[in-house]
Fold these 3 entries.
Entry 1:
Amino acid sequence: MAEKGRISVNTENIFPIIKKFLYSDHDIFLRELVANAVDATQKLQKLSSMGQYDGELGELAIRVAVDKDAKTITISDSGIGMTEEEVKKYINQVAFSGATEFVEKFKDVDTTNIIGKFGLGFYSAFMVSDKVELITKSYQDAPAVKWSCDGSTEFEIESADKTDRGTDIVLHINEDSQEFLEEHRISEILNRYMKFMPVPVIFGKETITEGEGDDKTEIEQEKVINNTTPLWARDPQELKDEDYLNFYRELYPMSEEPMFWIHLNVDYPFNLTGILYFPKVKNDITLHKDKIQLYSRQVFITDNVEDIVPEFLRLMHGVIDSPDIPLNVSRSYLQSDAQVKKISNYITRKVGDRLNELFNKEREDYQKKWESIGLFVKYGMMTDDKFFDKAKKFCLLTNTEGEFFTIEEYKAKIEANQLDKNDNYVFIYTSDEAGQHSFIEGAKRKGYDVLKMDTMIDNHFIGNIEHKLEKIQMKRVDADIAEKLVETDEKTESVLTEDEQNKVIEVYKKALGNENLELKVEALSADEMPVTIVRPEFMRRMQEMAEMQGGGMGMFGMNMPGSQNIVINGNHELVSRILKAEDEAEASKLVRHTYDLAMLSQGMLKGEDLTKFVKRSLDLV
């Protein structure tokens, strides 16, 4: 005689709430049920190893089967099973007094993982089922039992004919969930969530070929969809480089090979394993982000790890596996708590230690890979203060000669020639080596060294360095004339009187037809350009920030007053010729030409003005 009863949730509305509130994705049901089967199997293995079960273990595997005609999915295991009393305890007693309490308890998602504690993983089956049957036989000497429920709070429990140890869960799929009766859909879910389960998961058949030539035969066998001993779960000491590279190819089949990796393995004060890879990062950082997969005991949870690892570490690829990362009830989103912060700090420290080790032991190879490593390190230094303190020792600066320096090494290199009058180290850099070539050459004539800062994040990184390190000033090579990039008390004597300087400004304004131009005459070296257009560092940075944020030139465009300075070299021979010219037309032509040369060096001479400049150059020749 079948026993009938009522599931003790004290509400008729708990199942709709479980279906809609508990899980964000309906395909989670299969992960939960297979994970429960794995737990049951591992518990039996544990009991056997402790001597509390002396029976034959037999084949320990989980099987998933789809019957499209019957509209059922069956998940079977040969684990510890349950007695009738255990079914009543763990399946029937969903430990909430009502829907209101349920929603209130989880509205802020601030509890630890409760799946398994209240049987809610099992109840995910009702998201896709009209009816669920559980047929189970305990490893203990107890009769088999069958439990069934149609998604209401009513259930039936009766004896069953099952003779083998373990549990079968039969899902009678509802009309809205018929997609899960397609084998390719089940394969997709199993490959996503169960790819590295620690117990074999069998689904479907596969054909293998044995022998060669005339002896070759094809054999159909059950298909095991998972690798039960993934690389991160193995001892690092028994692994070779090729093992890590093969695993990376398995995770990211279409990606370039990584540069190097870190094998995480810690069991105190938390349990964490995993492998993190440093990919070859290109200029588009977004292509590389969010490639880390989170597992809990080899069960895939999510690839959204923003609450576990700092933003810059999300450029890394690989796997993190930890049962100690608390999850909300759906196992789909992470919670920020003290344990997570400890894990995050640990990962950051290990990454820093690995980079420091590579820098100290294999500096030449480290420098060769700096193009990719540099984006990663700079990104980390900008977003994580603790990482900044560690990384400033192995962050490299590259100059236009292709030489590499740490920050301290570079300070020592330029100390003799690039200290300003306030004892600031002036780091002169180029963001466009080809476009700023004339300015670079001018700086080199002064004996200055020029750094290359031309990656997508260098504009932000420059400000970060100035903010966090004392006595360092960053100046782009075209921020001023070469003689003023490093401010000192030394001055070049002018060959022009003050009246002559004023006259030069008048001649230029008249010849260029613009009385509002910001012009000044400076006493510069005679081998400097006759006219130079410079863009003040602050205004240029603001413009670039606006452009990166999609604001274009905006208020920081080159036509805004103060956004550019036009410097006339009073000591240049052409300026003297302009002053002495008796023919106003000739003077005007020289003015226009020297100004256009300055425009050309900044890449600002275009269209009709460029055409006229070329023609005028030919005439002058």
Entry 2:
Amino acid sequence: MAAAKNGQGMLYVTMQPQEGLSLDQFHEWYNNEHGPTRLRLPQIFSNGLRYQATDGQQPHFLAAYDVTDMAHLLTPTYLDLRANRSSREAETIGQVKVDRFFFDLIWTQEAPSFKPAEQCTDAEAEGRVLVAVDVSLNLTQEPDAAEKVIQWYQEEHIPILSKIPGWLRSRVLRMPSSIEGSNAGETKIITLHEYAAENGLGGPEHKASMDTPWRTEVFNKYITTKGRRTYSLFYVFGPAPRDLQHLAALPASAAFSAVSPRLTTTPGTSVDSPIISSYITTPHDGLIIPYQLEGNPSPSAPVIAFSNSLLTSLHMWDPLVKILKTSRPDLRILRYDTRGRHSIPSPPQPATLDLLADDLASLLDALRIDKLQTLVGVSMGGATTLNFAIRHPSRLQKFVACDFNAASSEANTQAWKDRIAVAEADEGRGLKEQLAGVTVERWFHPNTMEKKKEVVQWMTEMVAGNSVEGFRWSCQALWGYDLREKMREVKGVEGLFVVGEGDGKGALVRAMDGFRGLLGEKGGELKVVKEAGHLPMCECPEGFWEVVKDFI
């Protein structure tokens, strides 16, 4: 019998929710918990696709995962996923009729322009048609039936199918899989044929594939039964949960929180949007980066993202996000913790602005966000924002870069080294007991320090909660960089620069006014927030919103 292709195969799962199970609950669980957990194992699963039947038959839903090597499905890495499932998963899956199949991949033929769904945008991928055909073999009378059927597929049937308009790919697979053994059940050959949403199925080319002498011989001699299902692709997994749409339809009682995988989902209410809190693992060094996705639940809603400053967390944006949800309910809102807030890679390595920009690109990849409507960053996040526009201009429509310098100086580098020494003093207590207070006082406008004590306390506690080791390695991104010449090369991205009037006692206003004209061909406008210092969106969120709302 034909051998599997380099051990590759597929996990093929059909599902039929029982009456009484909310489809929103079923989809939210599968999209935000079950699927992403598997996509976090790229050494096992290269993709995860969800289909809905279009032929009126049950089961209505199919999930297909390409497997890099079927032997991986026998390892603890995979088996522990099922053994350690959450109570919610156990409860939900108990209300679903699930059939799991393991297929070995035998052969593939692709159109010259074929691109796997996971490499497409959602708009490009969703709606693709899948035709799944399984045939049982007459092995009792024809021991070589499998080889004969596969030969027909390879040499005649699939080459004819490839002439159908919209044909993308056909794959020949076999069950039982090699990991199940030859006694696991009836031997079948499965073919999966993929087409564009607009295609020629049912047309003359398709009819020609169904009426040849060789096909008649194969079905009369080697095949005993045939099954055929048709599906439409409706969801492509990434390793990061992102389904706000179904979450928004659930009651508050459906809120979910789990330590492993690290995931919290909060359904929407009449006064607030749904929220997903989870994490990604960077592909370049395996660092965990937490993120929060909220706002407009539509998967096609434009996305605004925020990049925080050194020593703060994604919650530094809380006051602004509160305004944004009211003023711009059309936006999805993405926040994340810059590397160094919680942990560092192993072995440790200094952060760079290039690494920080690529961290954001990795987050967008994991969330399958092709392009941001706006990116807003402050301080180190401001430098990250500008550098993201430099390195990834096709993924960004506009940006707001706040309270940063386009180039560092030797004096600044030495200042960061001195702050590291303070943070590490007394086994790290220096960050909480000394650096946090001094930093916030340096950041904030005198008006904030005098009249907004609760804001000062909030920010001081946030700074004190940073990892000392993370600070040591992440602040090195602000050593020895210069973005001024590269700024000139930015094209197709609008930029706005914003600064608090008291940042650096006014020195940063002058510095930013000096380099704003270097952006692209026309430069960027500079706007100043009154009675604010280094973090104007925290000190004076209403004032900050006033200067950026027309741009965003």
Entry 3:
Amino acid sequence: MLAMVTETSLSRRTVLKGGAAAAAALALSSFTPERVRAAVAETARSGVFGFGVASGDPTATEVLLWTRVTPTPDAVPGSGVGLPTAVGWELAADEGFAQVVASGTTTTDAGRDHTVKVVVSGLDPYTRWWYRFTAGGETSPVGRTQTAPDEPGMTHALRLAFVSCSNWTGGYFTAYRGIAARDDLDLVLHLGDYLYEYGNGEDRYGPAALAGVRDHQPPVEALSLADYRVRHALYKTDPDLQAAHQRHPWTVVFDDHETANDAWSGGAEDHEDADDPDTAGVRPEGDFAARRAGALQAYREWMPIREPEGWQPQPHQGTQFFRRFTFGDLAELSVVETRQHRSQQVPTTVGGALNPALADPARHLVEPEQRDWLTRGLTGGRTSWHLIGSQTLFARVLATPAPGVLAGQVANSDPWDGYQADQQAVLAAMAGSTGADPVVLTGDVHSSWASELPTDHARYPVDRNSVGVEFVCPSVTSDGPKEALGGTAAAEAVAVAVPAANPWVRYLDGIGHGFVVLDVTPERVQADWWFIRSGGDKGLLLDPRLDPQATVGHETSLVTLRGSRQVSGPVPPLGPRSDSPRSAAR
């Protein structure tokens, strides 16, 4: 497919309040490792609101507001110290706060790492709002948010960005700067790997050129609650990430790296027991359940996500993070969570044959209660479209032919392909849906895909029996096929070989990093891929992740038409919205 490129020049955003001078300097300069390791504490000392503001999980009448306060210089993230602190908040109809529509005071303390969450209710739908916090004689940066376009009998525009896999040591967060610069988004959907658990030693992940420039804090692998709190705080010092949070409401869900690589219900690929010989002489990793509990606590504290208890309660196991959002008669968005309860990953082959465990109905990617919630939503939907936010690839991906590869062998058992009973149950629900057309939105694979979702892959070349489509965003910075395979030529070869073995894969790019903008109308859903670029190069010759002055540019656009459940295009990039959120100012 021909790529269409529209270069957009963006100046590096400067966050002006709450200690952002230290954060901006960190992102733009090549400091020593010691200087970088002190970044979190420095940002905390530089102001009460040094980690910015955010909003999330908007509905028609509610929105969640978030910040983190540093009441005293010693109350740095993860320290466990600091007195309880009163924090004021205001929501206004105008950026100048002449019309404050809601306000209040809440208290935070070291027990929640001095993070703050406030849910503001009773708001008008599809309306833009501004918010701020006060504490310790300081005022936070002003954030902008909006309620959802969800009004009975009304069909509004819906446009969101979706993104995943933002590794601090992998490069500058130019993609977030591109998102922050947009004025046409209702929502940012983050599909996981918001942060990475690795340290700066042998487990360092990312370009060697950034060692000593963008290093993780703490410098070792995150294991404890304090470690994960500090890691979240480090990411929140990035000015581009702060700006994207400050500009738009987000809906987020975690994947594996918020805890450990390839996590499952009882462990992870990147977690060994304390008595494992591989851990001799290094920091013991301890009990995985305790590690995950600390990681998820820090995630709930530091992210603009609803507290799971009591919000949209459904039958579930563990803690319910899956949830659903409605956008009038146009679309629903089901956000699934695929790490807490999944069965352990298994090999794709055993004894020279396909592994029958891949299709074992006793193995699950999501717990049965969540799977049933998702399939009920698909079959009972009353909107034009049902969007599904999935951390891992949903489409079947067969391994490309090679010596030792068996016919029908899947390429990877960590995505839905490793849990085929759940995969088939969802495909059956898609096939049985007579209302909303399904569109899966996915991250995780550090590359860009558009795929159709057949129920019978053997028949696909004959009758293209697709029951839905999947659009996959590239990573923000994490290594993709180009980096993993050693160069552009190898990534381009994969982009040819994978669709040849999997004809339902209609688009694949393994070079670019960036994000996807999704636009939904009653007639179609369009996905625009935006890649970061250095001097116009998406990564063919250069590595734009290393360039702090990189830009973002349009790469290609594909659509699925209502009723087709197929991918078509390319088409021209998106233009203006059909309508815009209201102003509440009078």
